[in-house]
Amino acid sequence: MKAGLQIASFTWPGGTEAIGPTLGRVVHDADEAGFDSIWVMDHFFQIRSVGRAEEPMLEGMTALGFMAAHSSRARIGLMVGGVHYRQAPLWVKATTTLDVLSGGRAWLGIGAAWNQQESIGLGFPFPPLGERFEMLEDTLRYAHEMWSGERGTEAAFDGRHVAATHLLNSPQSISRPRPPIMIGGGGEQKTLRLVAKYADATNVFGGPETIHHKYEVLRRHCEAIGRDPDEIERSTLQSVRIAVDGNDGESPQQVIDRFGELADAGCQHVIFGVHDVWDPRTIERLRRDVLPEVAKL
User: Fold this and answer.
1) CA separation (Å) from 56 to 52, 63, 92?
2) In this structure, which long-range contacts are made by residues 251-258, counting pairs with CB atoms below 8 Å and at least 24 apart in sequence?
3) How far is residue 133 from each of residues 27, 118, 183, measured CA to CA in Å?
4) DSSP assignment, residue 173?
5) How far is C-alpha 93 from the chain's CA centre?
6) Nearest 5 degrees, angle CA 29-CA 35-CA 40?
7) How far apart are CA 115 and CA 103, in angstroms?
8) pTM of this structure
9) Angle, alpha carbons 184-187-193 (nearest 5°)
10) Which residues pair with 10 in a beta bridge?
11) Within 13 Å of residue 159, how many CA atoms lie on the same side as its CB?
12) Which DSSP category does 292 fall into?
């Protein structure tokens, strides 16, 4: 099983001035520890499941560029991008730039989005859900076309919300045939159908029974269009509070056992946020006691 680290909070000791140095250290340490992937959220306000809206939040694509410079092996991406925050050509050009500058380590993580509070608060258009799904499919189709060939395609693109005459992409991505695409969300009628048609990975939430069910739904969607479901990496987003020096939290064995149940349910890539990730002891304990065992699952 692969292991990914999601960095979801920047409320760290030292205040605003310490965010950059701390993020650089966390990413470097996670990369050295053996995490297969490192992610940040695509939000502008902190989300309610993590903290108060007023807590620090970084713009995701800019943060990923910074993270690329502080890592050398782990893939990096958004968990996951909100489709309405950027137009399709910017999604592909920005991800291509990240892929080139990171030496071929970019993910395109994307979904239909949900956070109405930050969109309305900051003035982003927030179309109805059905329209956001149309935008998502446009963006996925656009990405496949612009990442084709040596420099994209000169063929016109005519989507529901995007029209283009020349999908030039120079430089082209290092990752071939394209940076891998992960679609987040477990909607069984639309989201997982789009995963089957366009994506290289799925990311769903929940415990073993829930994620196993979602993977089975995805398998049926793949079968309906004649795609091998094993072409799609099955991931899940979880959270961990690891005990360090007597602090409250799970033991390494408890984390390993929990992830083992996810592996038995079909998960191939567990991505998890970690409480107190800013504390160097946290990454060190995961490196020493958890990640080697997770890799064996």
Assistant:
1) 9, 13, 27
2) 252/285, 252/289, 252/290, 252/293, 255/290, 256/290, 256/293, 256/294, 256/297
3) 32, 19, 12
4) P
5) 17
6) 80
7) 32
8) 0.95
9) 85
10) none
11) 23
12) H
95: tokens are 């991800």
First-to-last C-alpha distance (Å) of the chain: 5
What is the rounded distance in angstroms from the CA atom of residue 294 to the CA atom of residue 220?
A: 28
Identify residue 124 by its one-letter amino acid code.
F
Q: What are phi and psi of 120, to 5 degrees?
A: -70, -40
46 close to 56: Cβ distance less than 8 angstroms: yes
Q: What is the 3-state secondary structure (H, E, C) of 175-191?
A: CCCCCCEEEECCCCCCH
**If 0-12 CB within 10 Å is exposed, 13-18 middle and 19+ buried, where does residue 100 land?**
middle
167-168 and 152-153 beta bridge pairing: antiparallel
The pLDDT profile of the chain, 297 residues, written as one tens digit per residue, is 999 999 999 999 999 999 999 999 999 999 999 999 999 999 999 999 899 999 999 999 999 999 999 999 999 999 999 999 999 999 999 999 999 999 999 999 999 999 999 999 999 999 999 999 999 999 999 999 999 999 999 999 999 999 999 999 999 999 999 999 999 999 999 999 999 999 999 999 999 999 999 999 999 999 999 999 999 999 999 999 999 887 789 999 999 999 999 999 999 999 999 999 999 999 999 999 999 999 999
Amino acid (1-letter code) at residue 220? R
Radius of gyration of the chain (CA): 19
Q: Give me the phi and psi of 250, to 5 degrees please.
A: -75, 150
Residue 239 parent element (H or E): strand 233-240
- 174, two tokens: 């290092």
Residue 190 CB coordination number (10 Å): 15
Measured between alpha carbons, how far is 163 from 185 in angstroms, rounded to an integer?
26
